[in-house]
Amino acid sequence: MSEARQSLNRREFFSYLTVGWVAFGAACAGMLSLAFRFSYPNVNFEPEMEFIAGTPDMYEEGVDERYKNGMGVWMVKQEGRLFALSNICTHLGCIPTWLPAELKFKCPCHGSGYYTSGINFEGPAPRPLERYKINLTAEGKIKVDKTKVYRWEKGEWDNPNSFLAV
Amino acid sequence: MAANGLADKVRATQVWKSIFRHGPPDNARNRAAVVAGNVFLHLHPIKLKKSGVQLGYTWCMGGLTFFIFLALTVSGVLLMFYYRPTAEYAFNDIIALREHVPLGIMREIHRWGAHAMVITTWLHMFRVFMTGSYKPPREFNWGVGVILLVLTLLLSFTGYLLPWDQLAIWAITVGANMAKATPFLGHGGPGAALAQIGDFVLVSDKNDVRFQLLAGRFVGEPALLRFYILHCVFIPLVVGTLIAVHFWRVRKDGGISAPL
Predict the structure, then answer these.
(1) What does the DSSP assignment read for A87-129?
(2) Deepest of A32, A34, A131, B211, by most Cβ within 10 A of its Cβ?
(3) For position B183, what pLDDT does the model report?
(4) Residues 120-149 of A with CB under 8 A from B
(5) What is the largest CA-CA distance in chain A?
(6) How far apart are CA B181 and CA A109, in angstroms?
(7) A92:B212 CB<8 A
(8) Highest mean pLDDT out of A14-23, B37-46, B179-188, B198-207
(9) Residue A70 CB neighbours (<10 A)
(10) Is the pLDDT at B1 greater than 60, yes or no?
(11) Euclidean distance between the first and final Cα of chain A, in Å?
(12) A62 and A77 in contact (C-beta within 8 Å)?
C-alpha cells in the first residue's frame, strides 16, 4: 500500500487556487450586490401617492391649498373643470408659492411664474406644471393618483382622467 | 557640550531606538532613512528639487489643500460631538453650535474651510495644468487628482444639507434632480422612457439613482441621515485613501515636476 501523499502537485495546487479565487470573487460580488440592494429600503414613510381629496362640492372657483402641504397638490377649479395640479416647479423641482393677490404661482428658487391653470409665463421654467390623475369614487369622493401625470405640452390636459367636470 | 550629551543619552535609550531605527540625520544616508522609515513621511519624496519648494512655482496649493483637509477633519469630528442628524434636532444643533459651546467659531471654521478647500483644489489643478505637470509620467496622478476634485465637491454637496435650513433642503432638492436626469439611471433622464415593458416602468421615482441618493422621492429625514454618513464617513475614507495614493505617486513619478 502506498503511503499517503504529503503535498499537492502543481496541477492540483492551481485547481484549488482557481476554486479559491472564484469563491472569493463570488463572495465579494455577493456582498457588493447586497450592499447595493441595501441602499434601497423596502419601506419608506412618505405620503401615499393616492389620496382622497374630499368631495367636488367643497371647492370654490380658484386655487385650494388644503392638500398642498403633505400631498403636494393644489386643487384648482377653473372654467368648469376641477384638476389636481402638481406643486413641483418644472425648472429644478422647488415648491412654488400661490400668490392670491397676483393670481399666480411663484417659485422662490429662481422666479418661475405660472398662471392658475399651471401654464408657465415667466422665469426659467421650461414647461407648465403637471396635473395628476383625478377620478370620482363610487361614493362620490375625489381620488387623486399622483403616479399618473398629464402634461400640457403633450396635449394631455383634455384627457378625461386629468380633470373632473364640475 | 552638555546638551549634546543629553541628546546622545536619549538617542541611546531603547525607547528611542525602538521608534527611530536610523542614526542621527547627520549624513545623506540617515536623512533618507528619516523619510523612508516613517509611515507618514515615506509617501513623500526623499529628496526635493529646489524648484519643488519654490512658492512661485507650486504656490503650495496642493499642500494647502491637504492642510485644510486635515483642519476640516479635526473640526468636523469635533462638530459631530454636538450635531444630531435628525429632522427634530439638526437645525437647532447647528444654531446651538454657535452659542452653546466654547469657541463657537468651530462650525464657521468648518464651513469657511470647506469653501477654502474647493478654491485651493481648483488653484492647485490650475497650477498643475499651467506647469504641464499632468504630462507623462504623471498622467495617472492627474486622474487621481480629478477624482479627488469630484470627491471634494461631493463633500461640499453632502455637507450642504446638514444645516437643515431652507437653503439646504432646496439646494439638495435641485442638486438631487440632476441625479434624476441621469441617462437610463434617473427617471427623468434620456432613455428612461425606453426602459418600459408594457405598462411596467423599469426606471421610476421609486427605484432610480435619485431614490438611492435620497432614500426617498424627496429630501426628507432619510436623506439627511444618508448625507450625514456620506459626509462624515464614506467620502472621507475614500478621500483619505486616494490622498495617500496621490502623494505616493508624486514620489514614484519623480517628485514634483521642475521648470524646464
Answers:
(1) -S-TTTS---EEETTTTEEE-TTT--EEETTS-EEESS--SPP
(2) A131
(3) 93
(4) none
(5) 104
(6) 19
(7) no
(8) A14-23
(9) 9
(10) no
(11) 99
(12) yes
The answer to whether B239 and B155 are in contact (CB under 8 A) is yes
A92/B220 Cβ within 8 A? no
Rounded Cα distance between B214 and B224, Å, is 8
Task: Give B86's pLDDT tier (boundaries 50, 70, 90).
Answer: very high
Using CA atoms, how far residue B43 sits from B38, B249, B255, in Å, is: 9, 8, 11
Element containing residue B150 per DSSP (H, E): helix B139-161
CB contact under 8 A, A93 and B174: yes
Helix (H, G, I), strand (E, B) or coil at A137: coil
The CA distance from B81 to the nearest CA of chain A, in Å, is 26
Contact flag A44-B215 (C-beta cutoff 8 Å): yes
Q: Please, what are the domains in chain B?
A: 1-42 (no CATH), 58-252 (1.20.810.10)
- CATH topology assigned to domain A50-165: Rieske Iron-sulfur Protein (2.102.10)
Contact by Cβ (8 Å): B63, B70:
no
- Which of B218, B221, B225, B229 to mutate to probe the A interface, most A CBs <10 Å? B218
Over residues A55-95, the pLDDT tens digits come to 999 999 999 999 999 899 999 999 999 999 999 999 999 99
**Per-residue CA distances from B4 to A32, B7, B12, B23, B29 (Å):** 58, 5, 12, 14, 21
User: CB contact, 8 Å: A44 with chain B?
Assistant: yes
Q: In what order do the strands lie in the sheet with A120-122?
A: A97-99, A104-106, A113-115, A120-122
Sign of the dihedral through C-alpha B24, B25, B29, B34: positive
CA distance A52 to A65: 15
Domain edges within chain A: 50-165
- CA–CA separation, B123 and B105 (whole Å): 26
**Which contacts of B51-60 are long-range, i.e. CB under 8 A and separated by 24 or more positions?**
B51/B256, B51/B258, B51/B259, B52/B255, B52/B256, B52/B258, B57/B131, B57/B259, B58/B127, B58/B256, B59/B123, B59/B124, B59/B127
C-alpha–C-alpha distance, residues A75 and A59, integer Å: 8
Alpha helices in B20-60 (DSSP H): 28-36, 55-58
Q: Which residue type occupies A55? A: T
Q: Cell numbers 408657465 correspond to what residue? A: A120
Measured in degrees and rounded to the nearest 5, phi and psi for residue B44 equal -90, 145
Distances B225 to B13, B90, B98, B209, B231 between C-alpha atoms, Å: 50, 10, 22, 17, 10
Burial A31-65 (b: 16+ CB within 10 A, else e): eeeeeeeeeeeeeeeeeeeebebeebeebeeebbe
